[in-house]
Design goal:
Elements lengths: L4 E3 L2 E3 L5 E5 L6 E6 L3 H20 L2 H17 L1 H12 L3 H21 L6 E3 L6 E9 L2 E5 L7 H13 L2 E5 L5 H14 L6 E3 L4 H10 L3 E7 L2 H11 L5 E5 L4 E5 L5 H13 L9 E7 H17 L18 H16 L3 E4 L15 E4 L16 E7 L2 H9 L3 E2 L1 E5 L3 H10 L4 E4 L14 E2 L2 E2 L12 E9 L1
Parallel strand pairs: 7-8, 7-10, 8-9, 10-11, 12-13, 12-18, 13-16, 15-16, 18-19
Antiparallel strand pairs: 1-2, 3-4, 5-6, 6-22, 11-21, 14-15, 17-20
The structure holds NADP nicotinamide-adenine-dinucleotide phosphate.
The site of NADP nicotinamide-adenine-dinucleotide phosphate (NAP) has 30 residues, from helix 7 and helix 8.
Length: 474
């Protein structure tokens, strides 16, 4: 399957070298895309810039009508999109179908939310003046997306950007460009005008360099690692680029001794093993209070042993491969380091090389502490380290001892303890007795080095709007 760039309503890039897209489950080639760079990016930006005045002048109702069609198109093609995601990044098919529905929900939500982009009338201080606040679309938006949620991370940006009246240049990850390109095909099919949605694949440094430096781009919305996010901040400084950054995480899961054991085990499994542990809000470290520690470790291990590892296209697979061999090496490093420092493996603990080169067994580690890398660096794999804590305060202190602040989870049946713990957590998202807190209508984003800005919810469209204050003399 060969796919091309989409620039100004035309599929181009046939003459360019290509990048191969591989299936991590089998190491087979799934497709190829053009290796674009600065020139293609500049053309895409020009197209988005030229399309902006007409697109932004449409009424929100006209834009919402197209977004509604796009939502329908994603849902109508849910199975195909899901299969493509499983092929290029490995997640189990059922999860991929869930992602397609989740991705559509952002388009649906923002089609409606666009109709509520209210300005303001401010009481005047002078009888001959009227003061108003208008909301304006920021302009051309660049959307840089990661491989772990190839569709949902895209629609979480495209929904609000398009609803607000912005035009977009997409740069997907080289690991998962096919899903993004299929999404753009759907945009074309439902009738978005030429230049409103563009996509360029290829060299991240060249494409990123042009997106950050080109003065026609007014906003960059990025989801990916904290390292690259910081680099983009540096690159954007010269033109004071408006940025939204959804970056890495290292989510703590706190289980207090009055937690409902089954809720805590199921919630921790949902958070930890979804997408093979490759989500930014994955529980990366579990703190369990001493009164429930042994029981939790036993029940959790029992459930993790039931998870079936395999090719995501097969039936009943719970955990798929990691994205690539480097991903497996990182997980191996974390586990070996923990074991060398005294952690005990209760299940898993090794790569599953009998299945392929990208598989790692679902793993539970007990008796861990903060001297181990796994407790501070994002593992991005199916490894659950469990540390014993004595008090609520110790759990909070350890949870906050991280530069990241994206998601945290708390399991307790006590409202009073739950509220007091959550208020002290420096995390943008908290799941309280809930291992899967994301929803299109809720604000998603992190504190500290996990980023800036929020996606989803009422807040999600604000990042694509400028506030323009108008003082009117009568
Ligand atoms: P990544 O390596 O930072 O890549 C993210 C995107 O940035 C990809 O499209 C990548 O392209 C591109 N990129 C890489 N270097 C670039 C550069 N110098 N200039 C411009 N673009 C550049 O992250 P990833 O490995 O794809 O994703 C995993 C990370 O994303 C994890 O840290 C995870 O926590 C985070 N994440 C955060 C959220 C959130 O909402 N906070 C959600 C999902 C994931 P290439 O792949 O083509 O190099």
């Amino acid at each position: 399957m060969k796919k091309l760039h989409f620039i100004n309503g035309k599929w181009t890039g046939n003459e360019l070298e290509t990048i191969e897209v591989m299936n991590p489950a089998t190491q087979e080639r799934v497709g190829e895309v053009p290796k674009g760079g600065t020139d293609e990016t500049r053309k895409a930006i020009d197209a988005a810039h030229d399309a902006f005045s007409e697109w932004s002048a449409k009424t929100v109702y006209e834009r919402a009508a197209l977004l509604d069609k796009l939502n329908d198109a994603i849902l109508a093609n849910q199975d195909e999109l899901a299969r493509l995601m499983t092929l290029e990044m490995g997640k189990p098919l059922a999860e991929a179908k869930g992602e397609a529905a989740y991705a559509a929900s952002f388009i649906d939500w923002f089609a409606a939310e666009g109709k509520r982009m209210y300005g303001q009338t401010i009481p005047t201080h002078a009888a001959n003046k009227r003061l108003q606040v208008w909301k304006q679309p920021v302009g051309v938006v660049a959307a840089i997306t990661p491989w772990n949620f190839p569709l949902a991370m895209l629609t979480r940006k495209m929904g609000p950007a398009l609803a607000a009246g912005c035009t977009v240049v997409i740069k997907p990850s080289r690991e998962t460009p096919l899903t993004a390109i299929r999404f753009v095909e759907l945009c074309e099919e439902v009738g978005f005008p030429a230049g409103v949605v563009n996509i360029v694949t290829g060299s991240s440094s060249q494409i990123g360099g042009e997106l950050m430096a080109n003065e026609k781009v007014r906003k960059v919305t990025f989801t990916g690692s904290t390292e690259v996010g910081k680099e983009l901040m540096r690159q954007g400084a010269d033109q004071v680029m408006r940025l939204s950054l959804e970056l890495g995480g290292h989510a703590p899961i706190i289980v207090l001794d009055d937690a409902d054991l089954e809720k805590a085990v199921n919630g921790a499994i949902a958070s930890k093993f979804r997408n093979s542990g490759q989500t930014c809000i994955c529980g990366n470290r579990i703190y369990v209070q001493e009164g429930i520690y042994d029981k939790f470790v036993d029940r959790f291990t029992e459930e993790v042993k039931k998870l079936r590892l395999g090719n995501g296209l097969e039936d009943n697979v719970d955990v798929g491969p990691l994205i690539n061999e480097a991903g497996v090496e990182k997980v191996e490093t974390h586990v070996k380091d923990a074991v060398a420092k005294g952690a005990e493996v209760t299940t898993g603990g090794a790569a599953a090389s009998d299945l392929g080169t990208c598989y790692y067994q679902p793993t539970v580690l007990k008796n861990v502490d903060h001297s181990m890398i796994v407790m501070s660096e994002e593992t991005f794999g199916p490894v659950a380290p469990i540390q014993k804590v004595t008090s609520d305060q110790e759990a909070v202190t350890l949870a906050n001892s991280s530069p990241f602040g994206l998601a945290a989870y708390v399991f307790t049946e006590s409202n009073s303890r739950g509220m007091q713990v959550i208020e002290k957590l420096h995390y943008g998202i908290v799941g309280w007795n809930d291992g899967a807190p994301s929803a299109a209508q809720a604000p998603f984003g992190g504190m500290k080095e996990s980023g800036m800005g929020r996606e989803g919810g009422q807040q999600g469209i604000e990042d694509f709007l400028e506030t323009q204050y108008v003082s009117i003399g009568l």
